[in-house]
Here is the input.
Amino acid sequence: MNIIVQKYGGTSVADLEKIRAIAGRIAKRREDGEGIAVVLSAMGDSTDQLVGMANEISKAPDPCAMDLLLATGEQISIALMAMTLKELGVPCETFMGFEAGFSTSGDHCKARIRRVDPSAVKASIESGKVAIVAGFQGISESNEITTIGRGGSDTTAVALAAALGAGRCEIYTDVDGVFTADPSLCKDAKLLEKSSYEEMMELADAGAKVLHSRSVEIAAKYGVVLEVRSSSTGRPGTSLIPESEISEGSVISGISCNLDEAKVSIRKVPDKVGVTAAIFKPIARAGIDVDLIIQTVSEEGFTELSFTVPKEDLRRAMTLAEVVAREVDAGKVTASGDIAKISIVGLGMRSHAGVAHRMFDALAREGISIQMIGTSEIKVSVVIDMRRAEDAVKILHREFGLADR
Amino acid sequence: MNIIVQKYGGTSVADLEKIRAIAGRIAKRREDGEGIAVVLSAMGDSTDQLVGMANEISKAPDPCAMDLLLATGEQISIALMAMTLKELGVPCETFMGFEAGFSTSGDHCKARIRRVDPSAVKASIESGKVAIVAGFQGISESNEITTIGRGGSDTTAVALAAALGAGRCEIYTDVDGVFTADPSLCKDAKLLEKSSYEEMMELADAGAKVLHSRSVEIAAKYGVVLEVRSSSTGRPGTSLIPESEISEGSVISGISCNLDEAKVSIRKVPDKVGVTAAIFKPIARAGIDVDLIIQTVSEEGFTELSFTVPKEDLRRAMTLAEVVAREVDAGKVTASGDIAKISIVGLGMRSHAGVAHRMFDALAREGISIQMIGTSEIKVSVVIDMRRAEDAVKILHREFGLADR
Here is the structure.
């Protein structure tokens, strides 16, 4: 039996009417003879509401209790979906994370998936039922409910698809797919019908919000065919396929714009061995992701060190940086939240030299100054003033001919 | 270690402030050296909200999915309580129904508790932790989450106390305890400091809402000392003790008033063998509890049959009665929801003759006519016009001297 894993996010199951629409579509697909596992997120903003209650109780709520609390969100979704499918006469079975065989590490709120034993889900599908699986959750070795943090239900869906050997994993969202740029910033943005895992991972890391890089990484590792679809139309949007199946195309596949990072700068850092390591050690230990780093040597033999962190971690990063700045005898620590990280991503970069230069040149022509630069094999990122973000996306979209793909 | 089981109902954990107040009290009791298991209901009206969603999906939501849905309510309560206790520095551990060892039958939404294996909860308490247990839920033999229906978390608490061999089970509610009559109907009502299991079961069955008879029944069976306390003050209210420890007192201990029943009447029932059985068979099969039954023979050789059912089951009962009335060639089926069932309960009835007569007489003197009568060894119930319910409670409270206890 050909098994398909479908994942519906929070906005797709935000109310009973939306759940009914999805159930109707699932029923139809099942009639077509496909075996279906459905992975669901919590309804709408219900997870945020639960987190809000927890934060009222404590600044640092007990993570084990937090997971028990958050897991109810997906449990409610799968129960309501089961009722709706049964009302339509569709046989189905629900699976909480642990019932679906998701064993994780014991790091509450950010557990890693260790193993997926899909046998119960598989048996259910093979007996003709739709398997309805709670996303985002698993169980630790000490039998406590865990949640898997970033990437959440997308990651659940892809991992389940890999374990089931499913023919395809369909991620339903409130957009039509992945675009060459954010359509709200750039009217000419085109739907990317096909993309490679590598490009999508870079785009996701660079702030394109459609898929989380963790789910793409698992899909790439296990060769899961991953599709982003619109949950309102059900139509295929963007398919992720191995790089080898991508025909030669444009140099650049997409542009992302990330407004969720902030910049921390430490002035007058003494130019001594080990200083940089000393500065980043406490930040790494606190679990804060540092993205771009830039070091400028000023005339007086001092360095200025700047780096970006997620905005939500800015306050903690500042506190840690101030402590360490005093320790290494550096100067003032300043922060700026008014930045945008613009990234261009494309497999074509490997074979085309001068892509980064072309990017910098196009921005310079429009008077957009670059504060920081970062590169990978198939990505170039620049940090600019947030107020020029939209301009930058439009300029680069035109420069690399993305509207004409 | 002396173990106490405490149960807090929905109104007692309706918001974070109330949860904090309870947590503070638990912390204090633990410092006093008591081992504590806390059984919680879902917050406020959250269960009603979940039921509302389910009823929007279907007139008869799938009961298995319903249990999965409803179980989230108590799961949220225990998670929030655990966060609050940890914030106060109190070590604690949470237990969903299945983790607390509650094995039930597979009758979803009204499962029977089959076995309670309290070893995990016990180990947690003995290691110095407060055990926080989700009420109202268990797990079936086919590993599906179940809820236990009527009596809910009270029943969980008493069954857990019995299994743990706890010294006492404290049921915290939003009232001060059980009164001789509903204080909102009768200003003279007095708090019953002590009562027997038997009396409390009859009072509960007759509609006193403080404890459900199912929990009292389990307490009686396993000799659990049961206390009703006010969740706002924490003070002891009503203690349930074995009958043998009750000293001779008043003939009547309490009066209850139940407005939740409705009367169904079938006219012109042919006076044939087996007709009554034929009428009640489909109603019993539908799981509808019939309480009082009265049969009056009219002059033409016909009987009129009346019986009471819970108001929530009235529509189903009417439908079934109409079908069977046609089958047995009886007359019209009518219903009345404007009734009140007034019951007087007391162990003293056993040794005092004429209690029922005294009740009927007192009501007659005030012009209150009796529509139906039911009796047990320690209870007399009458059905009267709902509009005279408050009068009847006051008259009987005075007649049996309950204000002077």
Observations:
- Residues 3-174 of chain B form a domain with the Carbamate kinase fold (CATH 3.40.1160.10).
- Residues 135 and 153 of chain B are 4 Å apart (CA to CA).
